[in-house]
Amino acid sequence: MRLEQPLMRRSAPQYLQGKGESDKPLVIVVDDDEAVREGLYELILSAGFQPASFASTKELLEADVIDRPGCLILDVRMPGVSGLDLQHYLARNGNPKPIIFLTGHGDIPMTVQAMKAGAIDFLTKPVRDQTLLDAVIAAIAADARRRADAEVVGRNVKRLETLTPREREVLHEVARGRLNKQIAYDLGISEVTVKLHRGNVMRKMQAASIGELIRMWETLPESMRQPT
Description:
Blueprint: E1 26-30, H1 34-46, E2 50-54, H2 57-63, E3 70-74, H3 83-92, E4 99-103, H4 108-116, E5 121-124, H5 129-160, H6 165-175, H7 180-187, H8 191-205, H9 210-219
Parallel strand pairs: 1-2, 1-3, 3-4, 4-5
Helix pairs in contact: 6-8, 6-9, 7-8
């Protein structure tokens, strides 16, 4: 495969500037063709991204970089574990890392399979530089959104864990849209006590309004939104 000449080197995108090396998105290339790896490495570097390349999925997994922010560019057919196999492995292990497939042997069923499993794009060799870079930008943006969402969920889970069992009950009822007097009746407590618990919930969850509290509630895993 022959890649087009790399684009002129440019500075990293603004949303990457100021990040430490370990926080910068890593664009990981896995392809058993050395010429392809080198070409992609130079292209990614020229666009201001941080690249890493591996000759096999085994080599990648042994490098312990799969959890870094960023995305994967995978060849579909490689000796040993294929790109599609790696996609399935990551999905089974709860790692929805954005994947761009780049192959010289693609077909429609293979493309459909990869896209249904969550691939960002399925490109065929040779590929235009800008087409690939557009896919990389989309993949990194998707990963950034996922990580930001996960951070919000994690923060709200930690706050929820500071609530007492009764405060959780009140939160659950508030999230259902129940009024204070309805909650008091359902829980067998006074309306004043409900107001006290609700105030504690707002403070511990760091919610400025009931609307914000409801939005926090909706980010929580389904299992944590069930009544105790």
